[in-house]
Amino acid sequence: MMNANMLDHLIRDIKEKGWSFRENILTPHDMSLITSFFEHHRGEFVPAQVGKGLARQRREDVRGDHTFWIDPLNPPEEFRKILDMLGEIRTSLNREIFLGAQEYECHLAYYPEGSFYKKHIDRFENDSSRVLSFVFYLHPEWKDGDGGELVLYAEKEIAVRPFPGSLIVFLSDGLPHEVKAGTFERRSFTGWMHSKIIY
Ligand code: OGA
Ligand code: MN
Question: What confidence score (pLDDT) does residue 185 get?
């Protein structure tokens, strides 16, 4: 369950500016469960690609992360709390702003030290079904100077500091953003809500 106050803030932010950043969403216990899962599956992560369908390709000059996809319909136990929270966010946003979110796709990701994801938007040109993007940050530590910020190109430029256990959500439609290179292994659980059935 998400704290009702946090959920209210999140919904208000989305209504007002299209994004919301909340710290301390995950407890150290939640983080350690997921970290064990992460370490256990480290060898199964694959270099992420860009584009869709036949145009998919690895472009390290565009993004350098490695990902491990999670099936949200049959999730490992460690992800239950995150997926429950996303369910609450989805219900509220569907009610409050008619987001129309139905299903999710999600993956764990790590960015090796020095890697980045250049400025992009999360919607594909030929598929507009992504409606909400979400990222939970899972690395054990982060401090100013470590890099790895998520820069949102909203009305003004906002550098989101990826504190462990924090969550950023934003409307996938037309908010360009970029992941800066960092001096640490940057870890996240990232995904998108879709306005259509995808599984
Ligand atoms: C993405 C992305 C942001 C982040 O995976 O599309 O923009 O902060 N991630 O990891
Ligand atoms: Mn993105």
Answer: 98
The protein residues having their C-beta less than 5 angstroms from ligand 2 (an ion) are 122
Assigned CATH class of 4-50+70-194: mainly beta
pLDDT at 97: 95
Ligand 2 centroid–CA 41 distance in Å is 23
Helix ranges, the chain (H):
4-17, 28-40, 80-97
Whether pTM exceeds 0.85: yes
* Ligand 1 atom with minimal separation from the 150 CA: 8
- Crossing angle for the helix pair 80-97 and 4-17, nearest 10 degrees? 50
Quickly list DSSP for 137-191.
E--S---TTSB-PEEEESSSEEEE---TT-EEEEESSS--EEE--BSS-EEEEEE
Q: Where are the domains of the chain?
A: 4-50+70-194
